[in-house]
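A reminder from the course coordinator: this example appears on the midterm review sheet, so study it carefully.

Given structure:
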């Protein structure tokens, strides 16, 4: 494979990764988390963690397929996609649960380094308010885990493209890495875009903020139920 062809293939992988980040199931998952973050930076890092988990699972699947010659069956793919649907249902329910328990977004205003900062933050009704700090970003494993599950569910289609197009194992793995970089960048951009209206409404329009969070939860829940029905019942996986 000459250098021009290799570059074109990797460029295509990067663009495909960007496009992959805006798939409906990916957006449904991240939208339930990004709007809850207290800054645009932390919202974008949620997307980065999703993309990192997605890339890690693709790399593991890629090594298994390319070097160990393992095959990903159609049934395995269906099961993994069903897991994505169930996960979306759980994320949607969790987002709606926070609203039902009286979770509210308010603004932390504090002095830091001689400058005033304001950050939107979510507290549930009975939750004790903690002092705000810039030291350390606490995200938990949720975005990373979501990315890993999505990566496993999408591994079969990607591996098919890699195995039928690329003869070199090294180029194949490099393709997956570049694809992953594209998905990380795309999801960082999308999670930041999701956070913008949430941050704006948290400052001025409390009801609009609640409506946005409710829509994100309903979107995740309904899309997850649709996936479960299509894969589990219409696809006869659970019959």
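Designed residues:
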């Amino acid at each position: 494979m000459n250098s021009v062809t290799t570059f074109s293939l990797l460029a295509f992988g990067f663009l495909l990764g960007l496009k992959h980040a805006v798939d409906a199931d990916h957006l449904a998952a991240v939208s339930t988390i990004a709007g809850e973050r207290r800054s645009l930076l932390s919202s974008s890092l949620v997307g980065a963690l999703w993309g990192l988990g997605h890339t890690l699972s693709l790399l593991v699947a890629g090594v298994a397929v390319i070097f160990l010659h393992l095959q990903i069956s159609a049934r395995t793919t269906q099961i993994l996609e069903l897991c994505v649907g169930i996960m979306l249902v759980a994320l949607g329910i969790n987002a709606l649960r926070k609203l039902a328990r009286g979770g509210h977004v308010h603004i932390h205003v504090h002095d830091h380094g001689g400058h005033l900062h304001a950050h939107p933050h979510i507290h549930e009704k009975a939750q004790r308010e903690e002092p705000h700090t810039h030291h350390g970003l606490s995200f938990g494993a949720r975005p990373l885990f979501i990315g890993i599950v999505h990566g496993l569910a999408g591994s079969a289609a990607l591996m098919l493209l890699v195995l039928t197009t690329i003869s070199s194992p090294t180029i194949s793995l490099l393709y997956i890495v570049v694809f992953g970089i594209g998905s990380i960048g795309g999801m960082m951009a999308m999670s930041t875009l999701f956070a913008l209206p949430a941050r704006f409404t948290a400052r001025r329009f409390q009801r609009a903020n609640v409506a946005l969070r409710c829509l994100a939860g309903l979107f995740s829940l309904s899309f997850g139920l649709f996936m479960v029905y299509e894969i589990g019942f219409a696809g006869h996986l659970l019959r």
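The chain has one domain: 22-103+142-234. DSSP finds eight helices and two strands in the chain.
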